[in-house]
Amino acid sequence: MVKKLFAAILCLLLVGCGPQTTSTSHKIKIVTTTFPSYDALRAIIGNDPDYDLHMLLKPGADAHSYEPSPEDIIKVENADMFVYTGGDSDTWVNEILTDKKHGKVIKLMDLVEKREEEEAEGMEEEKDEHHHHDDEEEHDHDHEGDEEEEEEYDEHVWTSLANEQIILKKLSNALIEIDPKHQATLKANTDAYIKQVAQLEQEIKAIVDKSKTKHLVFGDRFPLLYFVKEYGLDYRAAFAGCSEQSEPSAKTLSYLIDYVRKHDVKIVFAIELSNQNVAKTIASETGAKVRTFYTMHNVSAKDYNNHETYVSLMKRNIKVLKEALL
Question: Distances in Å between the alpha carbon of 140 and those of 3, 95, 152?
Answer without folding.
Answer: 11, 10, 20
